[in-house]
Amino acid sequence: MDTRNDMLKRLNSRKQGFSLEQPFYTDPDYFKLDMELIWYRDWLFIGHDCELPKPGSYITVQIGHYPVVIVRDQQGQIKAFHNSCRHRGSRVCTAERGTTAKLVCPYHQWTYELDGRLLFARQMAEGFDKAQFGLKPVACESVGGYIFICLAQQPADFVPMRAMIEPYLLPHRLAETKVAFESTIIEKGNWKLVWENNRECYHCAGNHPELCKTFPEAPTVTGVNGAESDPEMLEHWARCEAAGLPSKFRIDPAGQYRATRAPLLRDAVSYTMSGRRAVKKNLSDSVSTDRIGTLLLYHYPTTWNHVLGDHAVTFRVLPISATETAVTTKWLVHKDAVEGVDYDLAELTHVWTETNDQDRRIVEENAFGITSPAYEPGPYSELHEGGVIQFVEWYADFIAPRLAEGGRPPLRSVA
């Protein structure tokens, strides 16, 4: 049986409320199908508008086999392109980030405008038409300071997602922030294990002493397990919405993205060991109260986020192989906040730096155990792991129809 049919058969026969079978977490051929049918076809969070502060600013990213460059053009628009020269395919931008007047391939100096047009190709034959060899575009959208791209030729409609999450993000004015610190860790586990670990706090008390000083373990916090009947959540939503902040739990029909605000423990207002503010300057003057807890924003398969009054912590998940995943964390502060004056970097980053490393170890031990021939799918806790159950249901419902349809979708062509 070929891998596609084997994968579909296992999904169709899987036991509801149980973890997936071993190949979903370990098999390179299953991983290739994940990449082709999810990562190469759907919207992916890449970074933030504030990382492209002026025309010519760019960032690069590797999505599986596809290098991509995201750049702010001369008109101030954010564009994305396949980072592959139209001459012989060399990467045009080799640095992780930078600023440039033009995009120049280092191999033979083919030169592109910031909007992707080919401007100069040295010593080509008479009749060579530069207009036919611009950089290939990648679909790109910006919402509330977040940049998403999609490699598919016909991306899914971005409008519903924008309509849902933009009202939650706009009050925080994240486009007017800066990255105070960034870290990337490589977790030796499948990307789905990274997500499964994130989607529950069943493990928090025994593994996250720093996070548990401020973040509640209650399964209602993420909105999946009965938040609408939790008096504390209802009171928090009412207080935030009275301050003009959309807060109630919302999820799209397919279960791919959601947003809600959740209270922190006791009088905590930020992710610090004391629970006090980490940054003196608010992210936004539009948010006048400290008691907003955290805005929880999720979008499968690439991002979860915590947006507070004084700073934001954003997470990006990118698969490297069947058994390796890169998790990038960025701490955003007001663009005018000064390190050493408005915030102490160690205090700002301590809780999530520790939590990330703890989660890395958890995921790696989970992945190691799954390789055992004795492994078989086990039951999730309906009381505490509703978020994990929801993620696995989304994954199965999302990829199964694509497995059944067969074929590989074309990538976005030159505009």
What features would you describe in this structure?
Helix 1 packs across helix 9 (386-405). A seven-stranded antiparallel β-sheet has the order 1-10-9-4-3-2-5. Strands 11-17-16-15-14-13-12 form a seven-stranded antiparallel β-sheet, sandwiched between helices. It has a three-stranded antiparallel β-sheet with strand order 6-7-8, with no helix packed on it. Helix content is 26%, strand content 23%. The two termini are 39 Å apart. The mean pLDDT is 94. The protein folds into two domains: 44-150, Rieske [2Fe-2S] iron-sulphur domain (Rieske Iron-sulfur Protein), CATH 2.102.10.10; 159-370, Alpha-Beta Complex (Naphthalene 1,2-dioxygenase Alpha Subunit, Chain A, domain 1). Strand 6 and strand 7 (111-112) form a beta hairpin. The protein is globular, with a radius of gyration of 22 Å. It is an alpha+beta fold and 415 residues long. It has helices spanning 3-13, 23-26, 28-39, 159-169, 191-198, 204-207, 231-242, 345-370, 386-405, and strands at 44-48, 57-63, 66-72, 78-82, 97-99, 103-104, 111-112, 118-120, 137-143, 146-150, 177-187, 250-251, 257-262, 294-299, 303-307, 312-321, 324-334.
Features:
Naphthalene 1,2-dioxygenase Alpha Subunit, Chain A, domain 1; globular; alpha+beta; Rieske Iron-sulfur Protein; 415 residues
